[in-house]
Amino acid sequence: MADDFAAIRVRAEQHGLFETTILHGHLADAEPMTAALETVIRERQASEAGISRSNVGGWHSKTDMLDWGGAAAAKLADIAVKMAKRMSRFDGREPEWSVRMWANVSPPGALNMSHAHPGVLWAAVYYVATGEPGQGGELYLEDPRFPLPQMTWPGFRAIGADGAPQDTEHRIAPKRGDLVLFPAWMRHGVRPYLGGGERISIAMNLYVK
Question: What is the CATH number of the domain that holds 58?
Fold first, then answer.
């Protein structure tokens, strides 16, 4: 009986489904804005103890940077919203957008634990200073599909449409002036920074109503 089935062949195509859109770009001619942001963040850090969220070993401002960040912070928020609008479609009336913004200053050894931003549509991060290249501090974005199968079979990775094993996370090594925008439900974090000096970034939550 088994020989009756020997000639069966499988013809199948692999398809990549449910694309997750990530924006990673560099803001051209943004150095004056970036320098202004660095100045105001340093001033705020000197006068405010900061709060604890996902940060380990670094300074995290309160989420009211639009109140004290001046024109540079308002400009950055406007740019982030414009980019988010390009990556969004709404059925019906265009919603109203709002932004919460905060600053992070990370010395050597600092990191951000994996986390997500519930109740937020898009998350964004702008890089004011990135420290020494190749010394860690990468932003990582986790593939949300993989925790459950890995709980069953640690080390499991599905084969992608290109025939290669899929990565369970994507890392970004940013530069000064880079802007990254991603869905806020996606778990993300920052790898430990091992170089000299400090890294400075600005995180944003983009809301709609």
Answer: 2.60.120.620
| pTM for this model (two decimals) | 0.92
How far is it, in rounded angstroms, from Cα 199 to Cα 190? 11
> Exposed/middle/buried for 113, CB within 10 Å: 0-12, 13-18, 19+?
exposed
Q: What is the pLDDT of residues 66-109, one digit of tens each?
A: 999 999 999 999 999 999 999 999 998 889 999 999 999 999 99
Say how many domains are in the chain: 1
Q: Contact, 204 vs 99, CB < 8 A?
A: yes
Using DSSP's 3-state secondary structure scheme, residue 148 falls into helix
Nearest residue to 191 (alpha-carbon basis) of 58, 34, 26, 80: 58
Residue 47 maps to a domain: yes
186 within domain boundaries: yes
For residue 3, is pLDDT > 80?
no
Structural domain range at position 142 = 20-151+166-208
Asked if residues 204 and 126 have their Cβ atoms less than 8 Å apart, the reply is yes
In a domain, 5, yes or no: no
Stretch among 9-18, 50-59, 101-110 having the lowest mean pLDDT: 9-18
- Does residue 6 form part of some domain? no
What pLDDT sits at residue 151? 85
Q: Return d(Cα 152, Cα 169) in angstroms, integer.
A: 18
